[in-house]
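I am writing to request your help with a piece of structural work I have in hand. What I wish to show you is a protein chain and, alongside it, a tokenised description of its three-dimensional fold. Could you please explain, in whatever detail you think fit, how the structure tokens follow from the sequence? You will find the record immediately after this paragraph.
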Amino acid sequence: MNPQSVDTIPWHCPQDSGQNTALQSNTGWTPTRIDQRSGTDNWWKHPLNRPPAIAVVIPAHNEEDQIVDTIRSIQTQSLKPITILVVADNCTDNTIPLAASTGVYVGITHNNNAKKAGALNQGLGCLELDRYDAIATVDADTVAHPEFLANAWKVMKTDPLMGGVSAVFRPKPKIKGRGLMGAWLVTCQTMEFARSASLRGTSEIHTMSGTGSVYRTFAVQEIIEQRGYLFAERPSNLVEDYETTLALKASGWRVTANRGVITFTDVMLTLPELWAQRIRWQRGTIDEWRRQGWRPWTRKSISLSIATMTVQVVSWLLVAAAILTVARHGGLPNKAYWIPLVATSMLTPVFNAWHSREAGVKASIMSLLAIPDLVYNMLRTCWTWAALALSLFTPTPTKW
């Protein structure tokens, strides 16, 4: 296939004609439980005489300011994808002509009311999935590191049951906040992303990243065979990437992240924007736990979340007790039970600074100062508990 103009892509024809080959597996294997597949079947082995065939799908809604940079970052990958498809969803700006000018495929969604999830599904529906070894999704406001695809494939080809490799994301270079508050928010998010990347390593992860992820095509086809789509389009699904991650885990696929698989994305520049983003992430996650329940593929994340929230409560109770004690007695009594609190307060900034080192000197210094980091962690505690309350006591919003 050669890049086509926007006007000539029959975007909704495959679905309307019933001939959508993307939903039909012609690979010669029947989807079964993965734990019943034998490693001797060689069903997963990639031919060594050719590079992997990868398609990249980029959903976009009014991204005229950034879409070209995103596309260029994919076109200049060290491991070249054979197809780049921009899925323009209800765009009212110049996203479509700008994307088309780069020579990639551009399609326009048809009757899509499911935002990003619907755009991704329609994009996948117009690909002949059997032609590809892997499918990557990249947000339209994201810039991929030149080794994004190559490093993701290196991880994927070492494990036959690796269904997806997620990027670790970092703020785009030269992003600056507005004023002192904005600069603090940008630095705190930079530290947060760096710590997440440092602690993620290559172990099993909570969720695939929406900024950039690479999926094994066999895994994509299996999920589509099971339920007819990859990304859930229900209005209550606030975190389509996490829901898809759970679907992969439920089917026996493994997902991971790798520090060499990097994307650069925007950060929130104001407190209301940051609050709204994190409430959506946290609430969407909790809603999904409540919908799916205590399952093998959810219990680890639920357990870690309960432990984290318990530590938050205990920590703030200890801090409150210490403040009250100092106010009443002019200092802390010489009791052994204060030693853990003092030791933790001294070691935590060092731990945080070490895991923030990739974010730069400014982030490490702020971690060591402790107070700015402490305030940001208070915010994180607040939106976690607020998201829990909203999930339990309010209906799920369909618009954000």
